Amino acid sequence: ELVSCVGWTTADELYSCSDDRQIMKWNLLTSETTRVVKLPDETYPIDLHWFPRSIGGKKQSHADSFVLTSSDGKFHLISKLGRIEKSVEAHSGAVLAGRWNTEGTALATVGEDGQVKIWSKSGMLRSTLAQQGTPVYSVAWGPDSEKVLYTSGKQLIIKPLQPNIKVLQWKAHDGLILKTDWNSVNDLILSGGEDCKYKVWDSYGHLLYSSQPHEYPITSVAWSGDGELFAVGSFHTLRLCDKTGWSYALEKPNTGSIFHIAWSVDGTQLAGACGNGHVIFAHVVEQRWEWKNFEITLIKRRTMQVHNVMNDAVDLLEFRDRVIKASLSYGHLVVSTSLQCYVFSTNNWNTPLIFDLKEGTVTLILQAERHFLLVDGGGLYLYSYEGRLISSPKFPGMRTDILNAQTVSLSNDTLAVKDKADEKVIYIFDAVSGKPLGDGKPLTHKTEIVEIALDQKGLTNERKIAFIDKNRDLYITSVKRFGKEQKIVKIGTMVQTLAWNDTSNLLCGIQGTRFTVWYYPNTVYVDKDLLAKTLYEKDASDFSKNPHIVHFVGNQITIRRADGSLIHLNISPYPVILHEYVSSSKWEDAVRLCRFVKDQTMWACLAAMAVANKDMATAEIAYASIGEIDKVQYINFIKDLPSKESRMAHMLLFSGNTQEAETLLLQTGLIYQAIQVNIDLYNWDRALELAVKHKTHVDTVLAYRQKFLEDFGKKETNKRFLQYAEGVSIPWN
Description:
- The chain is of the alpha+beta class.
- Helices cover 17% and strands 41% of the residues.
- Helix 4 (600-612) runs antiparallel to helix 5.
């Protein structure tokens, strides 16, 4: 009989239910199949979902049971051994789907009667969320378990559990929607229906991808756990797709319709419930990793092939267990299997460093030059390439099972993690100690943040983080915060994707239809007006919509288009060389390079770099070369100032840091200069306040104020100035 549903208990054990009312257990290691239980008459299973195994690394008490929905209007809570713990009358007509939320604190069921109901862990009715006239075929929980997504004919509906929050509803397909799924890592929604298409949506109901019509209705869709892949099932059809929608592989097995797809815990394989009574198993292979001259392919579940394109050498890497995750960068390949982690150096493929992993499947590997990060359901672990555990950062309410490469970023000294509970917050840790950086307060933005990235090079105290928020604006800010609030500066709009260079602090991104490289993003802290002159822009309309930057290595950028094809872009090698000269203080070489290249962008970068490093002679040459004469004059004025402190203060003024300049002058006892700075900036109240506080130069402030008012033919209206002017006569001579 037809198999209606499947579900994994471990990475190698699967349960399946079919219309012959049997629940079968499949052990993939021993290839044994055993019958667990035969269900009572009239109980035809429709959907099965295992209770969540663990939350934040802690094992759940109910973890060895599952919910089974059936055609007789009931759902059953069944133990792993096949004992029916509880049967609950839930709907009139069949219960078409049942889903636990991520924490296992609630169960949602939907039925032919058009009702959506929420139940407690023990099977008590909590609420009827919705009632409609048509059957509800599929249901999924939102990532935060606050919302439920369900189908209504051709519509998708997202309904929050809180009664007074707006319901989101949109027409998703031209035919009945049969299956939907919502991923908690990438927050994207899948749907498939009788119009023979599958579609990817964001959680606001915007269409990100729509497939071409297939020959038959789409009967199942399912996200892999980490949200990087999804599978689609139809009649004699199984398809593997990237999260952006394009297809990796299409198989045409002889299965009938695939009614239900379940991914294994580690995301390496999936099972499908087939209309002809078969259960189909599929393994994900042929993943590829590229870095510089190396190309690595997973050719079998436990074998990788390394291809060095420089000399055409091929190496085979054999593993004891199946490969789950891998990452190739910075001269190292890091591979996690179900029990161990292997670290290979690209110079020597024969002797990997191997260490055992704790309980938990690795869901993400991130690399920096000095160390790498492993993420599993239980935590974040930072290892050196010698296999030594460096630190394991933690923050309150940390959910590591839903982190991905967009929400975690690693550099040589810093780790940044975007919080899920409050999407406006980024936690920043010192990589070596695992403790929060600076004063321990996280970085907070005014709107929700979508993607974060740390720069990779330079000094620790100049580390910058770039992030894109929900409005697709790109911001940059400094990671180190000591008491004073560091400015968060906007440097781009409509940015879909971004990446830092691996060897110097260049940032690239795609803004709308323009591909942009920020040659020196730090410019915003030095001379904001210069930023536009330090950019490289190129038309990106041929990248199609929703392109994604894969990496930015040396002067080559790899971009994946929405159809899955890769594009390689090369940018000028000179900015990277300029960064290298400046980081080793070779100012003369830097000037020589700019004179050789004769490019305004390079001169603008050099000007900003020189001011940032307080090298005024180079700054003067660079500003002169881009025709900013007013700044050249100001630099000359700064160079002629008598004391080091006042030079420092005017450099701060040059970069727009008036508050810091004033503080510096006051600390060094240059009261008059501090007052003069405020007069020059027309900060009259502050100038008078300083003069009164230090009992000096009150008359000077009043004189300048009076002259200012006379020049504009205005009368004094400021009460404080009137009050002090009474007692002071000002002789201008």
